[in-house]
Design goal:
about 290 residues, alpha+beta, Rossmann fold, OB fold (Dihydrolipoamide Acetyltransferase, E2P), five-stranded antiparallel beta sheet, about 25% helix
Length: about 290
């Protein structure tokens, strides 16, 4: 095993963990309750006297905006403040690699977004290679340059966020990175029929398939605009979610209501008749035998 070009492990040889220059931030932060914040951060610094170590610690606390708590004990800090202190402690020994174990899972949504952005800014500023473990697909897509999607201990697909979202390699990847509408069908003559039209497939004739359709692949238009490439639908409900609206629709031939995402929510009211056009680029066909 090599880290930053330096061998740290091989059969019969192992560099002690504390000398590998790997920073670890625990899911529950694991701050030392008996040490003040500044001493928590200075704990792993190996170079210099006590004053020098504290200067390193204070510099990181300032960068992360928690220098005002330097003399406090961890129990008086909020979850977000503890998270920043834990990050500072992990960075203090100047690691070449950082391991983050679901560091934001214990924070509420609004605080999580802010702390996550602050963490990303600091890691980029310090140019620290980082491995982040998360079960949150959105978090992975927001933070990572590259994503490795794992299942049952094995990597099933890796790439950029765009690659995994736009070109999923399996039913599991398609459903993990975002919501999908699902249809079942059978491959025949290089096509599979859905209630919204046919899609191309390379699967053999007779193969049972599932079709995964992203909500944004359902393009809505007022009902009078009839054409051969669209399908009639009725809006069940529409919910404004900031800049976009989530629209649920029913169509003939679909067992469950469909979900569409639109940036023109004012047009789509419950009970309104519309036409749906399917975008094949955001629709994916996989064998029905694949697990989701």
């Amino acid at each position: 095993v090599e880290i930053a070009g330096k061998e740290v492990a091989r059969p019969g040889f192992s560099v002690p963990p504390e000398h590998r220059r790997v920073g670890l931030m625990f899911q529950d932060y694991a701050l030392f309750p008996h040490l003040r914040v500044i001493d928590n951060v200075a704990f792993g610094v190996r170079e210099g006297d006590k004053a020098a170590k504290r200067r390193v610690a204070m510099d990181l606390l300032i960068r992360l905006g928690v220098d005002g708590y330097a003399r406090d004990f961890p129990h008086v800090l909020s979850g977000g403040e503890q998270q920043r202190v834990a990050l500072a402690r992990a960075l203090a020994p100047r690691p070449v690699v950082m391991l983050l174990d679901e560091p934001f899972s214990g924070l509420d949504r609004r605080l999580r977004d802010r702390v996550r952005n602050d963490t990303l800014d600091v890691l980029r500023e310090l140019s620290v290679a980082t491995l982040l473990v998360t079960h949150d697909a959105e978090e992975a897509m927001l933070m990572a340059d590259r994503i490795a999607l794992m299942r049952a201990g094995a990597i099933v697909q890796s790439g950029t966020a765009a690659e995994l979202y736009e070109r999923p390699a399996s039913a599991f990847a398609a459903s993990f990175f975002g919501d999908v509408n699902i249809f079942e069908g059978t491959a025949q003559g290089g096509k599979v029929k859905t209630p919204l039209g046919s899609l191309d497939t390379v699967l053999q004739d007779g193969c049972k398939v599932r079709v995964f359709v992203r909500p944004e692949a359902l393009q809505l238009a007022p009902a009078p605009r009839l054409d051969a490439d669209s399908t009639a639908a009725e809006i069940i409900e529409s919910h404004l979610l900031g800049p976009v609206s989530l629209v649920r629709l029913k169509i003939e031939g679909a067992a469950e209501p469909l979900t569409a995402r639109s940036d023109n929510g004012a047009l789509w009211k419950a009970g309104k008749r519309v036409r749906i056009r399917l975008d094949p680029a955001r629709s994916f066909v996989f064998p029905a035998s694949q697990e989701m």
